[in-house]
Design goal:
Layout lengths: L3 E3 L14 H7 L4 E3 L40 H10 L13 H7 L2 H10 L12 H12 L2 H4 L5 H10 L3 E2 L7 E4 L12 E8 L4 E6 L8 E6 L3 E5 L6
Antiparallel strand pairs: 1-2, 3-8, 4-5, 4-8, 5-6, 6-7
Helix pairs in contact: 2-5, 3-5
């Protein structure tokens, strides 16, 4: 599913949605332009309160707050579930995946609608790379550590806020990409899971909503990685 860029983003609250053509049509009545890969356009995000089930962070510096949660799920179990979804494809309208359907019905959808605008139905055909990561977290039992969101930029900032953000490759980490090579979180285009570091300047990943509109295993150059979110998995 293609990258979407907001061309009619003059309304302050609504511009934060950045969830693709369907949301834009519903909320803005604006126009979107297609580009090369699954994404949402980075725009200024809301200063929203992080809701229940934050990642575990026992070493949070003084002055910062987070809820400490632990999961009994390993990185390998999460990756096994993600890889079991390889081949799942969107329909001709860019929807129809179990990830979009689940997210549209979820508690988190209500929270992100309150934050970004739109409605539940808009998620059904919206770009779904972040919804895929969220679905895997939910269905593996690791959501408290993986989090959930439909917007890649806000998702990355959630990890950063909870001091679970960095640049070291780890299997099971949530990897955020910018096709331009930018290291600015506001320029993030896409998200997936790290499978391994290939040792040659690339990483192997599992991603939803790739350029082929599917869940796929990919090899990506590290030069396109903005950073990694680190869920607190079981040993």
């Amino acid at each position: 599913m293609a990258k979407h860029r907001i061309l009619a983003a003059s309304k302050k609250n609504i511009a934060r949605a950045a969830l693709g053509t369907s949301v834009l049509a519903t909320v803005l009545g604006g126009t979107a332009v297609a580009n090369a890969e699954a994404t949402t356009t980075p725009v200024k995000t809301a200063t929203a309160a992080v809701t229940a089930n934050h990642p575990d962070n026992a070493q949070k510096p003084a002055g910062k707050k987070s809820e400490e949660t632990k999961v009994s799920v390993t990185a390998q179990q999460v990756l096994d579930l993600a890889r079991s979804q390889v081949g799942t494809s969107e329909n001709s309208a860019g929807g129809g995946t179990p990830y979009q359907k689940w997210y549209a019905a979820s508690q988190r959808a209500a929270e992100t609608i309150n934050r970004d605008g739109g409605n539940r139905a808009a998620y059904l055909n919206a770009p779904w790379c972040a919804m895929f990561v969220s679905w895997v977290g939910e269905h593996s039992g690791a959501r408290p550590a993986i989090g959930w969101d439909a917007y890649t930029v806000t998702y990355a900032k959630w990890f950063e806020k909870n001091d679970r953000w960095g640049t070291k490759v780890q299997p099971g980490a949530v990897v955020f990409f910018s096709w331009s090579g930018s290291k600015d979180l506001d320029d993030i285009n896409h998200v997936g899971f790290v499978v391994k570091d290939n040792g040659d300047g690339t990483i192997s990943t599992v991603e939803g909503n790739t350029g082929n509109g599917k869940v796929e295993e990919r090899v990506r150059p590290k030069s396109q990685v903005v950073g990694y979110g680190y869920p607190q998995y079981a040993a």
